[in-house]
Amino acid sequence: MRVLPPVACFLKDKTPHQSLCDCPICMEEFQNKELVQPFGVCDHQFHSSCINSWLLTGKITCPVCREQLFSL
Asked: What is the CATH number of the domain that holds 12?
C-alpha cells in the first residue's frame, strides 16, 4: 500500500477550538504551517506520518469516523 503525501498546510485560527488543532491519532497539537494530511471523503486531518503509519497497518478507514478511504 502506498503512503499519502501531505497535501495541506495547517494554519492556526484565532478561535480556541483545541480539538480541531490536535491530531486524533497521536493527540499532539498541530503546529502553525505544519503539513497535514486530510483523509479521503471525511476530510479529518492528521499528521502525515501518523495517518501513513495507520494505513501501513492495513487499515483503510478514518480513525475518527470510520469512513472508508477506498470504495470496495
From this structure: 3.30.40.10
Q: What is the pLDDT of residues 19-66, one digit of tens each?
A: 467 899 999 988 877 878 888 778 888 888 899 899 899 988 999 999
Judged by DSSP in three states, 36 sits in strand
Least Cα distance to 42 among 22, 62, 23, 26 occurs for 62
pTM of the complete model: 0.69
Distance CA 11, CA 27 (A): 17
8 Å CB contact between 47 and 23: yes
CB-based contact 25:63 (threshold 8 Å)? yes
Q: How many domains does the chain have?
A: 1
